[in-house]
Specification:
The structure is a single chain. The protein has 292 residues and is α/β, with parallel strands linked by helices. The chain folds into 2 domains: 58 residues; 210 residues, Glycosidases (TIM Barrel, Alpha-Beta Barrel). The protein is 43% helix and 18% strand. It has 10 helices and 10 strands. Strands 1-3-5-6-7-8-9-10 form an 8-stranded mixed beta barrel. Helix 6 runs parallel beside helix 8. The longest helix has 31 residues. It is globular.
């Protein structure tokens, strides 16, 4: 029995040593199964994930640092003439609520309605929205979305046939934006400017009032920077900033596309006018301004 016990102790000791050896050998073999580039790949994935999370939560305009102000509908201070722009995306508007709604304690002074796009598209809610705005005592306007694949002349004529602006309305608005879309259609900066100016010229001759140009701050600086556009009132889309850039003159500022207001389900674009009430009224279409 003692001998057996001794042998058992010996076997355990030997097995333990072998196990230790084989364990080290197995560990080495296991390491060798992962090539050097796998560790590099892991680091790249880790850094990519970190950068994505950092961008989403701290840099992205919709990060949590800005979501609080977006959800509260930040209204730039110092302005009293506020308004919205709408299209079929807002669905059916409750005008009873809207006309009594407030935007940072100020009333809704104006509503600009999408009228047309290209030479065939009429916004499905345009006629009702345009009529209801006037009926409810809100200054109204109408805009056309310029597309690259149809002549500017045809688009201008189409807009004039559909949007019948009257005395007291805001001037007609040309919405020209999205440089990527224009470049994809083979239109360069010069061609974009030419189309925009042709539309503006035709519509101005008809209404005898200077049209308004709507675009983003970047598009205005990159594409519409020619002095020929300086005489047109500029309606600028520039989001998530407390104040606008000083290197561009604007009349209207669309400061958010995620506003909330009574009478509209979901989000709506919110705007301010940058001047006085007298300056705002001076923009409106005067009596007998529409050509026969």
């Amino acid at each position: 029995m003692p001998q057996v016990k001794k042998n058992n102790i010996y076997r355990r000791s030997s097995a333990s040593k072998k196990g230790s050896k084989s364990g080290g050998s197995f560990s080495n073999k296991k390491r060798r199964k992962f090539p050097w580039w796998s560790f590099l790949l892991g680091m790249v994935l880790f850094l990519s994930s970190f950068c994505f999370i950092f961008f989403y939560y701290f840099v992205n305009p919709l990060s949590f640092t800005l979501k609080s102000s977006v959800n509260k509908v930040y209204f730039p201070p110092g302005y009293t003439i506020r308004g919205i722009d709408i299209s079929h995306y807002q669905g059916v508007v409750d005008w009873e609520l809207l006309r009594n709604a407030s935007m940072d304690s100020d009333p809704v002074s104006f509503v600009i309605v999408k009228a047309t796009e290209g030479e065939t598209i009429i916004d499905e809610c345009f006629n009702d929205n345009f009529y209801q705005a006037r009926k409810n005592g809100v200054v109204r306007g109408a805009y056309h979305f310029l597309v690259p694949n149809v002549s500017a002349k045809k688009q201008a004529i189409f807009f004039l046939r559909q949007a019948h602006l009257e005395e007291g309305d805001l001037p007609p608005v040309l919405d020209v934006e999205d440089e990527t879309r224009w470049l994809a259609a083979g239109k360069d900066k010069r061609q974009i400017q030419k189309m925009a100016l042709e539309w503006l010229d035709i519509v101005e001759k008809h209404y005898q009032v200077t049209p308004i140009i709507y675009s983003s701050y970047k598009f205005r600086q990159d594409v519409l920077s020619d002095k020929k556009f300086d005489r047109y009132p500029f309606w600028m889309a520039h989001y998530f900033v407390d104040t606008t850039a000083k290197d561009v003159q604007w009349s209207f500022w669309q400061h958010t596309d995620q506003g909330k207001i009574s009478g509209i389900v979901g989000y709506v674009d919110c705007n301010v006018f940058g001047g006085t009430l007298e300056e705002f009224n001076s923009l409106l279409i005067p009596p007998l301004s529409v050509a026969d």
